[in-house]
Design a protein that fits this description.
The chain is an alpha/beta fold. It is 39% helix and 18% strand. The protein has helices at 3-13, 46-49, 58-70, 81-94, 105-123, 143-147, 173-179, 203-216, 267-270, 286-301, 304-325, 347-356, 379-398; strands spanning 25-29, 32-35, 40-43, 98-102, 130-134, 165-168, 184-189, 192-193, 199-200, 219-223, 247-250, 261-265, 329-335, 338-343, 359-360, 362-365, 368-371. Strands 4-12-11-10-7-5-6 form a seven-stranded mixed sheet, sandwiched between helices. Strands 1-2-3-15 form a four-stranded mixed sheet.
Length: 403
Amino acid sequence: MDTYTVLEWSDRYLMPTYRRQPVAFARGRGARLWDLDGREYLDFVAGIAVTSLGHAHPAWVRAVTEQVARYVHVSNLYHIPEQARAAKLLVERSGLGRAFFCNSGAEANEAAIKLARKWAKRHRGPQAYEIVVAHNSFHGRTLATVAATGNPRYQQGFEPLPQGFRFVPFNDLEAAERAVGPATCAVLMEPVQGEGGVVPADPDYLRGLERLCRAQGVLFVLDEVQTGVGRTGRWFAYQHFGVQPDVVTLAKGLGGGVPVGAVLAREEVACAFEPGDHGSTFGGNALAAAATCAVLETLEAEGLVEHARQMGERLAGHLRQLASRHPTVAEVRGMGLLVAVDVRVEAARVVDACRERGLLVNAVRPHTIRLAPPLVVSPEEVDRAVEILGAALDAVAAVPEAR
């Protein structure tokens, strides 16, 4: 199929829920993609921080192919060996007690919300149902996770939204302390606000939230949908901060491209769920679980978590050098291979200019570009990406924005 046909059919037959870039891909390898016309791109989007092992990693391909040849799905009416193995790998790396598998980050956060309320009904009383969340956050697209998301643009047009979320400014511990009360069942935060512009939490803030939750007897829940599974240079971003959450939600990079979400929880919290309380038809099926095992085992076998830390430092360092000599760059921030560049021009124009030069990035805010390459990215690919970004910024700066 040619590019023109794909774009025409997408425009004609798909619901208009996305602003898609005018490109369609034929194949990928590592941190590179080739479009239907054979043009090569450096992929610094990674499917929105999903393709953690890059495209077509041999270990991942082998695991998924072999699983498809055996069986794909039997449902959670039965024990699934691959799912049990994936749960063991996650529990061992997180220090938490049990796992629940679903299909996406939004589903993981929905499950965490339900788990927190169920636990609180037992331990704090029937009045405890509220969850403290942050402005500028993003927790998903379902009604409950949209209601928990601290950005009105995701909520407009879908009212009335589910109740039970109290919003506080991010990185403001005193505001969180004032918000926690008898009706609170949990505090839900991102260690790094990904869709909010790659804004890391202050270390003292997360530590203070953990102390607050322990003192008040509420659950400390961290949304690691975008930051988990090695993305920040540790297995989980919370490990940078020296905290231990009660509940963690995961997705994106967990399956390397196969849809997988997960909730991890301390033993006594996880056991608030009883048979029938929650479930998923597809969650943790054999294919998704095999992909998860391949990701986790390959990250460890190839030292890719530490590699992500090193490449993240290299990427951020080059970007800060670019900022020092380019007036268009306002700020660089991030953690590991999740990095944002604030620019003084329209970010969408920079995204287009990068794509035209063979680099894929995306805009998470009108003036913020996110770079989240696969964890297998090489030093040479990092260097080339920053070189292309610099050329794109030069091109955009040379042409005034239309009024």
